[in-house]
Amino acid sequence: MKADRSGGVERQLRDAAPHALFDVARALIEERFDAVTVDLLMADYAMTRLQPVAKLPRTTTPLPLNSSAAGRAFGAQEPHIVAETGNRAPTVTVHLPVSVRGDRLGVLSVTLPGTEPAPTTVEALQEIADALAHEIMVAERDTDLFLLARRAERLTLAAEMQWQLLPGRSCSRTEYSIGAQLEPAYAIYGDNFDWSTSADHLTLSANNGMGEGIEAALLTNLAVNALRNARRAGLSLADQASLADQAVYGHYAGRQYLSMLLFRFHLPTGRAEVIDAGSPRVWRMRQGVVEPVELEAQLPLGMFEDTVYTPQHFQVEPGDRLLFVSDGVYDVPSPSGERYSERALIRAVRDTRLLPPSQVPRAVLEELAGHRGPGPSEDDAMVVCLDWHGRPDGSQQGTGQV
Question: Which of 23, 177, 282, 326 would you label with 127, given CA atoms 20 to 30 Å apart?
Fold first, then answer.
């Protein structure tokens, strides 16, 4: 690595124009590490391939996420090194995850001369990848470059609206880890998820707006933004649901409504409030046992005027895994008309028990696609996976489900 004569990497990336962010990062890496090539690959919306960031038409072939060296770094979330010894001059490629607080964006692939990079070199490259990830999140407000790179095909307008509404597809914190996915990724319309964290709370919702296309996306946008508005005003969970209910009813007068699961977890204790207002369901795996969490069903948001919502209480324990699924998962039929049963869903949860939450939704949806068979889905589907770790100081005391 050459001496740093031009200031810190983070400052140079921060000063770069949004559309030139990767160009600056690539130039820095080429100069400081004598890199042969530097490529940035973004995970596509369906989480099936890694798309190169390049100015069209000068682009390279996408890589399969599940069967490529770069995909291995993406899945494991740690550097993966591949030596290329067949060339006249040996080179080695370092694939580095590009992620922000557990939200997996893509992979930075750097090819270097030689056969094995020094550990300090890999560490320095990972720091650049981390800094690049943070700047990509900021730059996406001002450029379409990285959003375009995520597209393996064109998004419908409804899907565009839904993806822009999401907080991300995964996140992690000391107390929990979350992964989520929507399908069909390029034509989603009514399903959605949202989360927000504070010093002591995690608020999470799984939503399923009725209807199709843009109408379903508009309904979900209205409800999610109403929930955010109420949450940011400091209202209780019941009042958040009531305000969103009033917003939806006030606009649609009961003609359209939205089903929702709304959770608020207390991070120090695992104590949670929950409002079950419709079709999304929650499953729990605790000590290897998978079972549905039975909640008191309340009316969907916007079905009737002035609905009163009452939170239930729920306890999560360290080691628990919660899976939130929409009816596009558990109601999907096979070609013979057989519904995706509870038994099949339990099997899917068990089969993915060793995967991190960021990979579980994609794996469950792939199994669902196998059940559904060829052809387009009749409904959109949502899977959200939450692993509860608890506070590391042991302050959370297990009390069992309430």
Answer: 177
Q: How far is CA 137 from the centre of its chain?
A: 14
Number of helical H runs and strand E runs in the chain: 11, 17
The beta strands (E) that lie in 184-337 are given as 191-197, 201-209, 258-266, 271-277, 281-286, 289-292, 312-315, 321-325
pLDDT for position 48: 95
The edge-to-edge listing of strands for the beta sheet with 103-113 is: 63-64, 49-52, 37-43, 103-113, 91-100, 80-84
Query: 237-252 vs 213-232: helix axis angle to the nearest 10?
Result: 140
Taking the C-alpha atoms of residue 52 and residue 108, their distance in angstroms, rounded to an integer, is 10
E strands, 216-256, in order: none
Residue range 343-391, pLDDT digits in tens: 788 888 999 999 999 999 999 998 887 766 665 566 789 999 999 999 9
Cβ neighbours around 341 below 10 Å, total: 11
Which residues does residue 283 pair with via DSSP β-bridges, in sequence order? 292, 323
